[in-house]
Amino acid sequence: MAASATAQTSVDPDAELLARVARGDAAAVRALVGRKLPRIHSLAYRLLGDAAEAEDVAQETMLRAWRQAGGWRPGSARFDTWLHRVALNLCYDRLRRRREIVTETPPEQVDPAPSPERSLETLDVGVRVARALDQLPARQREAIILCHYQDLGNIEAAAAMEVSVEALESLLGRGRRALRTALASQDEG
């Protein structure tokens, strides 16, 4: 039995932490939130472009993780993959609701960069990339965000998107080409 528990932990690095969360260990809850919340918030922010909505999605995702901790059974997907899938679904729910409300201007974004020159340069690049990402089809954008901004490997990203690795690689290839084209057209315009 001990070897089985060790094998499960090596397959899913969060298995032991989840077991502690399920037992009501407050330190484990803090550790889980500390470990996962920043990445989930970053994912939500990149998909939604709104800090308040990203916070809501991240909090709801962590709440669901806490509720599911007792029933989590390591198997076909790692906990981290499941957590990203939950966050993606919550983001897409919000994006679907947005379609019903037309807004003409995006919300203002605060740039916390220390240097004014650097912040202008970073802002310009970030705005250009965000505009180009917004032009991509949703699945291509999702693949690029998971692999390049969330640092998920192809296998994890494919599992989070519920597609094969080959389909993910195809989405990434098409997304990268479309991103290059969109950035080049910004340079021309």
Question: What is this structure, in a nutshell?
Answer:
The protein is an all-alpha fold. The chain has helices at residues 2-11, 15-22, 26-48, 51-68, 79-98, 116-135, 138-149, 154-161, 165-188.
Task: Please characterize this protein's 3D structure.
By secondary structure, this protein is mostly helical. It folds into two domains: 9-102, Rna Polymerase Sigma Factor, Chain: A; 114-189, Arc Repressor Mutant, subunit A (Orthogonal Bundle). It has helices at 2-11, 15-22, 26-48, 51-68, 79-98, 116-135, 138-149, 154-161, 165-188. It is globular and about 60 Å long. The relative contact order is 0.10. Mean pLDDT is 81; it is low at 1-10.
Write the layout of secondary structure elements.
Elements (H helix, E strand, L loop, with lengths): L1 H10 L3 H8 L3 H23 L2 H18 L10 H20 L17 H20 L2 H12 L4 H8 L3 H24 L1
Q: Note poorly predicted spans.
A: 1-10
- What is the mean pLDDT? 81
Give the ordered list of helices and strands: HHHHHHHHH
H/I helix tally: 9
Shape: globular
CATH topology of the largest domain: Rna Polymerase Sigma Factor, Chain: A
CATH superfamily of the largest domain: RNA polymerase sigma factor, region 2, helix turn helix motif
Note the main attributes of this structure.
disordered N terminus, 189 residues, mainly alpha, 76% helix, 9 helices, 2 domains, Rna Polymerase Sigma Factor, Chain: A, Arc Repressor Mutant, subunit A
